[in-house]
């Protein structure tokens, strides 16, 4: 059974930065910069050889930041990520095997869905909070509105193509409780180690969310 709510986890800053980190030091500095800008959670994706090391380092060195893992595709990754200190779990997909391994941890979790069939599978497992990914390629706001008309009990966190420019469109949909994205951590800014710029971009995003009255 799901014992923790993802929407509760992100209610004070309902934006989930998606971090593809190639350096442990960068992961720590980026996390500090995000938190300084008002973002309290960050998802480090399993797309680099040092991803688990990054999760462990942020968990230990930036305890004020709630760090989780993304791009989970199999149960072993779930185990390894929890062992590294991941405090929430995100997957781009949904299978019964993967979802059950995530549920067993008791941590907040978001499986990825894009279709009515996947949403039905999620509900059969007791999951009512999902990641809608890749959002832009699957119709974005309009698709979520259509799905919500049938699956009114489901809450969405769209990721993929979400930006400061269109964030308000997503938050205008009642079934959307948060958004995910990487626009506040551009690769060139990370490469130049301009942590203050990341803080500014984070603060800008949080300021807009507050204007939309979406922060608890």
UniProtKB/TrEMBL annotation:
Keywords: Carbohydrate metabolism, Lyase. Pfam families: Aldolase (PF01081). One of its GO terms (molecular function) is (R,S)-4-hydroxy-2-oxoglutarate aldolase activity. Gene3D superfamilies: Aldolase class I (3.20.20.70). Pathway: Carbohydrate acid metabolism. Its EC number is 4.1.2.14, 4.1.3.16. The keyword Amino-acid biosynthesis does not apply. InterPro entries: Aldlse_KDPG_KHG (IPR000887), Aldolase_TIM (IPR013785), KDPG/KHG_AS_2 (IPR031338). PANTHER family: 2-DEHYDRO-3-DEOXY-6-PHOSPHOGALACTONATE ALDOLASE-RELATED, 2-KETO-3-DEOXY-6-PHOSPHOGLUCONATE ALDOLASE. Belongs to the KHG/KDPG aldolase family. Homotrimer. This is Bifunctional 4-hydroxy-2-oxoglutarate aldolase/2-dehydro-3-deoxy-phosphogluconate aldolase. It comes from Thalassotalea fonticola.
